Every structure is written in C-alpha cells, then in structure tokens.
User: Which sequence fits this backbone?
C-alpha cells in the first residue's frame, strides 16, 4: 500500500473515521485487520487481565464492530486468533469429541500426613534412591474447577477440550477463546506443538454477582458455575461469565519446557499464562505437609475454591521413570482438606439395587448445606455400617446404630461423596426402632443373601430383576464404557419400559435403528424426539460399534472387573478371541470345576488357562473366578455373544508395540534387582509393550532373574523359558 494511502487511513482512524469497507483493497484491509486485532486484544487485556481499562466501552465496541465488518467482507484475511471470536459467535448444535494426544489423568488422593509420608517413601523405593539422596517436590493449591486442555500449534490456539473421560473430551474451543486468561497466541519461543493443561474456575465475588444477576438459574457453587459457563452452546453466554484460568501442566510437547516441574511452570508464565503464586518447592515429606498447612490456613482468604494441595516430583526425568498407573501418575498426589460437616435429620432409609445385585442403603436427609453444596442424600454403605459395626464385627461410632428419624452428622468425603459420620443419641425419638435390613429384593422379591466374607447383601434374581438389568444398561452406556451421545440413564429407563422399541440388553441398542425402520410407530414421531434428534442418536450408536477391547470389557459390568482390570486384561490378551479362548479354557479345567478352594489350588499346576489368568500381574483369583463364572452363565453368555456380533472390537494397542524386542511377550521378574526396583522394572516392561505375569508357565517368554532367584528360575529352566540377568534386562530396558 502506498505511503500516502497509509497516512490517509491512519489519519482517518485516529479521527474516528474509516474508509468505506467496499473501497478497501485486500492489502489495505489486511493491514487494518492486523492493527484492529492488536488494539482490541490489548483492550481486552487491560480490562480483564489488568483490571485497568484505558478506552471507553463505546470506543471498544466501535473498534470491535469495525473489525467484524472487515472480517465479514474479507473472510480469507481473518486472523485465526481474532478477538472477535470472544463474543457473538454463532451457537453450535453440540460439542464435538476430541481425542487427547496424551490422556488427561486423575490424581491419587491423600487425606492425612501418613499418606504423604507413604507417598514419598514409595517414590524413593521405586527410584531406588539411597537414604539422604535429594528428592524435591512441588506443592500447589488444587483448584476446584473444570480441567481444560489447550492445544497450540506454532504458538496459536487451535483447540480446547474438556477432560471428559481422560481419553476423549468435548471440543469447547470457541468458548475457551472467550476466557480472558487464555491467550490466543503464546509469547516467546514456544514449542511447535504444546498442550497446556489447567483449571477453569470462578472467584467468590464473581460467583456472588453471577447468582445475584439475571441468568435464569442459581448455581450451587463456583465450580458448577464455571463448568456450566464453559459448556454453553452459545459462546456469547460464556463470554458474559467471569471465568478465570490457572495453568499447571502440559500434555503433548514437541520439545521439553524445562528439566523440572517448577521450571516448566515458570515457563508457562513466560508463554502468557497465569500460574498459581502459592506454588512452592519442598525437599521432603515434612516440607510438603508444612506447605499443605500454610495453604490450608489461607484457604478462606484466597477468593476462590480449593479442595487440597497437589504434590509433584520436581525432576521431570524422575517423572518419566515413575510413569503412570492405569488412571493416575505415580509421581503426583492430591492431599485433600478435611471434609466439612453439618447436622441434619435422617427422614428415611431407602434401598437401591445395583447392577451386580448389591442392596445399597441410601439416607434421605432434610436438605443441608455442606461445604457450599446442598446435600439431601448420603450413602450408608451396607447393613453393618447402619448397625454400628465394621465388616469384622468391631464397633464403629462406639457402636451407635443409625435409625430413621435420627439427627446425624453429614460430611462430604474428599469434598465429594456425602456420608454420615455420627448420630446424636440425645435427639433420638423415644419410639425409634432399629432398622431391619431387607432379606428380599425390593425390586423383584427374590431372596437377598449375604455370602460368607461379603460385606453386602445381593439379590439372587439375576436377569429377572429389572433393577439389575437397568443398572447394567446404564453402566454399559456410561462415560468410561460405550459413552453413546443421546443415550444416557434417562433414555435407558424409557427404552427399557417401552413395549414397541425396547432395550432390554446391550445388543438391543445396536439393532434399534433397524427395528425402528421396520416399525409403523417411528421413534421420530414420539414426544421428546424429532427427526434430527433420532438421526443423531442412531449416528452416535453406529459410531460406537467400533470399540476398544478394554472399554468393552469394562462395559460388560462383570463384578470385580473395573477400568484398571479391563485395561490389564486387554493389554495381556490383545484381542477378544484370545481372551474368550482363555476364559472358556479355564472353565473346563479342574481349577475352576473343583468344588472347594483347597482342591482348586491343588489343581492349578495342571490348569494352563487358569494359571495364565491368575498369573497376570494385578489380576487375582477372585476376579478370575467372577470373570469365568459370568462367561459360563448361559443367559449372560448368550447376551454377550449377541452383543459381540454387532461390534467391531479393536485389539489392544500396546504403548511400544512392534518397536522393542519384548513387545507382545510375557515377562516374569524374580529375585532382587540391584539397579532398578521391581516396580520400576514392571512399569518399564509394560511401557515397552510387554505383558508382566506373576508366575512362570509354558506361555512365559522371558524370566528376568535377579539376585537370589529361586523356584521360578528352576521352573523356567524346566520349561525351556529364556532366563536373563539384570545386566541383560537393563540393556533391553534402555531401548
């Protein structure tokens, strides 16, 4: 653009006048867009970040309106991080799914100082550190908000996603762009790709103003307000909410931010993020506990909610060695604050029947506020807890039982799950009676029995019990299982009771579209549905026909087979067919068919499938018995087989498959390793795609024998299993 033209335009801009948009060349428009974007972004920072606006609201609106006009006329010139994206974006129909490049993990919890000391001791043991060897940690407040992952490419924000189930979250990019603390473009020399993890929250004063305003609803607490605000379908609603963001971690990186946790968080601040000023470096367990105490004392004056303190190993090299469990990192811990309590009246005790038939008592309470949340229900665990004793028969609450009509002390365990801590006997009604726990199922009338050693009473009705069937289906479509959009708990209850298009078992979900097409009374014509919503539901179901093996295992709802065990089994067997072959084989072996435990243990030596299952590291005999028993129940197995015919089950993809000499092989460790702890060796082997078993069998590929190796080494020699020493293992582990 000619210098005289630029001067004329700048003079017009300064005087509050612009050339007509239709008169601008692309070069002129591009220059003006860049200038306006910078000025509007600067005004945003001054208003929201520095709380010191330097231009009037009218002038701000004028600049932003002009920028929008230019972007509409020259859409190809609009900047990807344009500040016009902060408000006024068109509402979307729903949030898309985002698969995190690196899973967003949760944290293990601690509730007392001994838990913290155990955490430090475990890490020192895992790393095989000598006594007195330095080991630093960071300590920072645990913000009570909504976790968010921000992906930047070449310094520009390209995607924002909620945590979701850790692997898949919701795409909230348009909404995240409206949060003042989230930069659209990073400062300085940022990695080519960097995912920033942090917490979206709302301050106490902002929360009070929001609830006092005309939003159409009253939020229970700042965390709910922040989460609800970020997950608005219309970004302009999010923009009107006073959200804030603290950065504390990262996911995928093309190069490291620093060598330590503290250094990396300091680098986050350099990149343009707000980080928590209370973060401190500590040198041992006593230092961590002291930091927790200091932060807890400041809790009431911070102006935002925290529910504990997070500890992390400072050395990122150590973090890499420590690695992850199935859902939590070994190198981090959340030390929670003590639960808040309140007294209220227990109106009645109700029994709920779960998917495994467990009869779970629930206390219905006079509503009371505990820790800023209104609580009207609390768990009562089981009949022993109500009676005032633990599972061994020893008294709890000094033997005080819980009765309907009692005044009870309620607390929120970990500031989440409401529980009852105590009973005020002085306020107990004179005519109160001990609670008689039911011996029959309240849903189907079947006997409810309590097996020896079990802490809960269970309905024997099985598939004839509607509560179990419904709860199994709810579990099946849950977030950690099939996670089908538009098919939640409410819809499951509706379809279960439906006589025209029923869903009574998981396979029915995947035949729903076909049955609807052949039905005169179409789903789209029913109340609560429409053509578009039905199309979306069927598309979501179709998308979930392709499912990971570990998700399918967890979705089946087999007792004792949770997320961790499902992932372990999937990793070990790799495919559905291999798992089923082992389970079916075990069912035919003496170890399973033996009538008593003693006979079963004696038969293990002749039971290769049973031995393989129980030999998987982290898989016990109780779980295996439950798995094999479930697969051998005719009705349950038939339902599983019908489901499997509808699915495309994806085999497990081990972390380092096809890249190391132990990928896909089964390893056993025995004896004492001197330069790497057993725990670290197992974690390293699994990270390299190997399976780790606890005992040697004909299916063992490699035995790593440390000092003092005994019977396992002898058995490996008998079976022709390759045996290596620690030096050879360290060579393999270094790959």
Assistant:
């Amino acid at each position: 653009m000619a210098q005289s033209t630029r001067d004329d335009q700048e003079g017009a801009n300064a005087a509050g006048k612009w050339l007509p948009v239709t008169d601008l060349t692309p070069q002129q428009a591009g220059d003006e867009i860049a200038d306006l974007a910078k000025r509007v972004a600067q005004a945003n920072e001054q208003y929201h970040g520095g709380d010191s606006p330097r231009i009037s609201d009218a002038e701000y609106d004028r600049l932003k309106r002009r920028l929008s006009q230019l972007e509409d006329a020259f859409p190809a010139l609009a900047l990807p991080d344009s500040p016009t994206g902060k408000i006024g974006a068109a509402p979307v129909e729903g949030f898309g799914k985002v698969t995190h490049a690196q899973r967003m993990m949760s944290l293990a919890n601690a509730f007392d100082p001994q838990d913290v000391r155990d955490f430090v001791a475990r890490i020192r043991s895992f790393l095989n550190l000598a006594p007195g060897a330095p080991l630093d940690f960071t300590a920072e407040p645990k913000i009570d908000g909504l976790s968010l992952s921000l992906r930047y490419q070449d310094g520009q924000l390209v995607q924002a996603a909620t945590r979701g189930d850790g692997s898949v979250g919701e795409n909230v990019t348009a909404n995240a762009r409206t949060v003042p603390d989230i930069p659209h473009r990073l400062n300085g020399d940022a990695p080519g790709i960097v995912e920033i993890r942090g917490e979206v929250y709302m301050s106490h004063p902002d929360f009070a103003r929001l609830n006092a305003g005309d939003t159409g609803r009253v939020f229970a607490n700042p965390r709910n307000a922040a989460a609800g605000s970020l997950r608005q379908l219309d970004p302009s609603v999010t923009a009107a909410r006073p959200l804030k963001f603290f950065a504390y971690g990262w996911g995928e990186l093309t190069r490291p931010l620093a060598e330590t946790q503290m250094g990396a968080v300091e680098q986050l601040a350099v990149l343009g993020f707000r980080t928590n000023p209370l973060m401190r470096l500590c040198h041992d367990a006593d230092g961590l506990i002291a930091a927790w105490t200091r932060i807890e004392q400041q809790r009431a004056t911070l102006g935002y909610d925290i529910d504990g303190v997070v500890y992390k190993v400072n050395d990122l090299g150590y973090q890499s060695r420590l690695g992850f469990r199935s859902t939590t990192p070994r190198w981090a811990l959340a030390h929670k604050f003590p639960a808040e309590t309140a007294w209220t009246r227990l109106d009645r005790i109700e029994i709920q029947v779960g998917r495994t038939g467990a009869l779970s008592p629930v206390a219905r309470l006079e509503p009371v506020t505990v820790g800023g949340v209104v609580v009207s229900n609390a768990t009562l665990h089981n009949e022993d807890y109500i009676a005032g004793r633990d599972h061994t028969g020893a008294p709890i609450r000094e033997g005080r039982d819980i009765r309907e009509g009692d005044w009870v002390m309620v607390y929120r365990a970990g500031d989440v799950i409401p529980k009852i801590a105590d009973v005020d006997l002085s306020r107990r009604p004179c005519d109160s009676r001990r609670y008689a726990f039911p011996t029959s199922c309240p849903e189907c009338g079947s006997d409810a029995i309590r097996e020896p050693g079990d802490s809960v009473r269970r309905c024997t009705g099985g598939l004839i019990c509607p509560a179990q069937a419904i709860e199994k289906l709810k579990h099946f479509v849950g977030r950690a299982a099939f996670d089908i959009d538009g098919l939640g708990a409410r819809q499951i209850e509706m379809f279960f009771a439906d006589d025209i298009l029923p869903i009574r078992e998981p396979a029915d979900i995947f035949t729903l579209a076909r049955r609807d097409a052949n039905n005169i009374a179409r789903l789209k014509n029913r109340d609560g549905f429409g053509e578009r919503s039905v199309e979306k539901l069927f598309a979501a179901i179709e998308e979930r026909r392709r499912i990971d093996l570990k998700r399918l295992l967890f979705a089946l709802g087999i007792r004792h087979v949770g997320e961790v065990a499902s992932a372990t089994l999937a990793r070990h067997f790799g495919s559905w067919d291999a798992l089923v072959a082992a389970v079916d084989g075990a069912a035919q072996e003496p170890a399973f068919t033996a009538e008593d435990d003693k006979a079963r243990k004696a038969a293990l030596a002749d039971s290769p499938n049973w031995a393989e299952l129980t030999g998987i590291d982290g898989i016990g005999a109780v779980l295996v018995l439950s798995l094999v028993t479930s697969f051998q129940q005719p009705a349950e197995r038939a339902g599983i087989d019908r489901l499997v015919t509808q699915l495309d089950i994806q085999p497990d993809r081990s972390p380092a498959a096809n890249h190391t000499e132990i990928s896909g092989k089964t390893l056993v460790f025995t004896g004492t390793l001197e330069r790497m702890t057993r725990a670290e060796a197992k974690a390293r082997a699994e990270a390299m795609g190997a399976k780790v078993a606890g005992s040697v069998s004909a299916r063992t590929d490699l035995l790593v024998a440390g000092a003092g190796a005994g019977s396992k080494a002898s058995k490996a020699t008998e079976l022709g299993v390759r045996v290596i020493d620690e030096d050879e293992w360290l060579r393999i582990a270094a790959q």
Observations:
- The chain has six domains: 3-86, 109-336, 341-449, 465-544, 549-650, 666-733.
- The chain is about 35% helix and 20% strand.
- The first helix runs from residue 3 to 14.
